């Protein structure tokens, strides 16, 4: 079985609103599924809490259950006008080795998730936008 | 119950900024365990908000397909323009009713999407607790061609 993790976080920024999509790789095994599979419902494991923050500011917080789909995807939106938004490089720029100066990089959106067995998953992505006026 | 009492009730689940890993605010799984074992929407509502007979609000939007070929991944979209403090997602198609409880923050646009399991056709309900302590809801039904708890 593949190791559980936050597979990806994608953020789109428009009109000072960030839309974030996070994809997990996690079995989200219910008590019933565990009972059927191993005979022991205590083998159930599913994500129980997810928090997203930018610096110390919480932008998303949810307590969750066994009833989210396997390999769950969550989408949420938050106001990002008070955060630093970096510039997303175009493919051509990346190919040409253009690098954004660290001081111009956007704030990080960090996702922290916990599951029933106490495993913690964490992943960050820079808040960045292609547009000059975000 | 004002917010300070509510937060102190949550006790040890509250994040301390000195511990960077744990930035969550209220972990409703710890602070309200009965919500997650409730078998009906009414029981989950009672356990979370201590109310029953919740009024409908047209300021909560909930979109779910009418028919789903599989109950393993029913797409749910919901949002609210109410001044929300917490938002709950419940259903009556699984052994327990509580799917999620969102805690709203000042940046939150209160617009969410996710995919949930539905063991049978049934009702999905979104409840909103406003900052002045009122509870509202909206609900919809959805059909599932094949049950979703087999994974």
- Could you give a short account of the major beta sheet of chain A? 4 strands, antiparallel
Q: Biggest interface between protein chains, with counts per chain?
A: A-B, 42 and 40 residues
Order of helices and strands of chain A: EEHEEEEHEEE
Shape of chain A: elongated
Descriptive account of the structure:
The complex is a heterodimer of chains A (134) and B (151). Chain A has 134 residues and is mainly beta. Chain A has one domain (5-129): Immunoglobulins (Immunoglobulin-like). Chain A is 10% helix and 46% strand. In chain A, the strands form 3 sheets. A 4-stranded antiparallel sheet of chain A has the order 4-3-7-8, with no helix packed on it. A 3-stranded antiparallel sheet of chain A has the order 1-2-5, with no helix packed on it. In chain A, a hairpin with a 2-residue loop joins β3 (47-54) and β4 (57-64). Chain A starts with a strand and ends in a 5-residue tail after the last strand. Chain B has 151 residues and is an alpha+beta fold. Chain B contains 4 helices and 9 strands. Chain B has helices spanning 3-10, 28-31, 33-37, 41-49, and strands at residues 55-56, 60-63, 67-68, 74-80, 84-91, 98-103, 108-116, 122-130, 135-144. In chain B, strands 1, 3, 5, 6, 8 and 9 form a 6-stranded mixed sheet that branches. At the A-B interface, α1, β3, β4 and β5 of A face β6 and β7 of B. β5 (73-79) of chain A pairs antiparallel with β7 of chain B, so a sheet runs across the interface.
Descriptive key words:
A: 134 residues, mainly beta, Immunoglobulin-like, 4-stranded antiparallel sheet, 9 strands, B: alpha+beta, 3-stranded antiparallel sheet, 17% helix, globular
Give a short summary of the structure.
Chain A has 2 helices and 9 strands; from the N terminus they run ββαββββαβββ.
Topology:
The complex is a heterodimer of chains A (134) and B (151).
Chain A: E1 5-14, E2 17-25, H1 31-38, E3 47-54, E4 57-64, E5 73-79, E6 86-87, H2 91-95, E7 108-115, E8 120-126, E9 128-129
Parallel strand pairs in A: 6-9
Antiparallel strand pairs in A: 1-2, 2-5, 3-4, 3-7, 7-8
Chain B: H1 3-10, H2 28-31, H3 33-37, H4 41-49, E1 55-56, E2 60-63, E3 67-68, E4 74-80, E5 84-91, E6 98-103, E7 108-116, E8 122-130, E9 135-144
